[in-house]
Specification:
The complex is a heterodimer. Chain A is mainly beta. Chain A is built from no helices and eleven strands. Chain A starts with a strand and ends with a strand. The chains are: A mainly beta, B mainly beta. At the A-B interface, strand 4, strand 5, strand 9 and strand 10 of A face strand 4, strand 5, strand 9 and strand 10 of B.
């Protein structure tokens, strides 16, 4: 089945630690996105990539980094510079065919 | 500035009690308006895309409509399994379109048996 796989489902980060969230897709979509979701707030865009080896900052990129070395993968690193990283992180791809997003199942990150 | 506002924030219905969720938006050149359903701890699931004022789409007990300023998600005779958070998002059109969606904060629906 085609889809998006996010891992891990739950992740715990200690203060000062960098962690990487994985996002893999087999939909053959060019564009990939990372969103952050906090209770009572809409999804906010962190980074996006429309093509391999290229990516752009979204609205809340500070404290995060990404890479796009291959079409299928768009990992997100939450660095120690992100002061409030506890949130639900969603990866999505965009289809130019039907013009909408497909989302992964999310990673819940908690600072301990 | 592009903005999406959903109301109400939370809605409690009895099974069979029909109602509507509202999504008001301001965007420079609407390319599309999207509705998603999200269950707790899961990623959003696509429901509808609407492209122009006057357009309507239906799926089972759900019907989405679009005007130039807002969209409604009508739920007819809801069942407990319709309980979820419903997200509205808009995509700006025009050149340089990045595919970015601007999301509202969502409406959490609870349907009691």
């Amino acid at each position: 089945d085609g889809g998006i796989t996010q891992s891990p489902k739950y992740l715990f980060r200690k203060e000062g630690q960098n962690v990487t969230l994985s996002c893999e897709q087999n939909l053959n979509h060019d564009a990939m996105y990372w969103y952050r979701q906090d209770p009572g707030q809409g999804l906010r865009l962190i980074y996006y990539s429309q093509i391999v080896n290229d990516f752009q900052k979204g609205d809340i990129a500070e404290g995060y980094s990404v890479s796009r070395e291959k079409k299928e993968s768009f990992p997100l690193t939450v660095t120690s510079a992100q002061k409030n990283p506890t949130a639900f992180y969603l990866c999505a791809t965009f289809s130019t065919g039907w013009g909408g997003y497909t989302f992964g199942s999310g990673t819940r990150l908690t600072v301990v | 500035e592009d903005q999406v506002t959903q109301s109400p924030e939370a809605l409690r219905l009895q099974e069979g009690e029909s109602s509507s969720l509202n999504c008001s938006y301001t965007v420079s050149g609407l390319r599309g308006l999207f509705w998603y359903r999200q269950d707790p701890g899961k990623g959003p699931e696509f429901l509808f895309t609407l492209y122009s004022a006057g357009e309507e789409k239906e799926k089972e007990r759900l019907k989405a409509t679009l005007t130039k300023k807002e969209s409604f998600l009508h739920i007819t005779a809801p069942k407990p399994e319709d309980s979820a958070t419903y997200l509205c998002a808009v995509q700006r059109g025009g050149s340089g379109n990045t595919g970015k969606l601007i999301f509202g904060q969502g409406t959490t629906l609870q349907v009691k048996p």
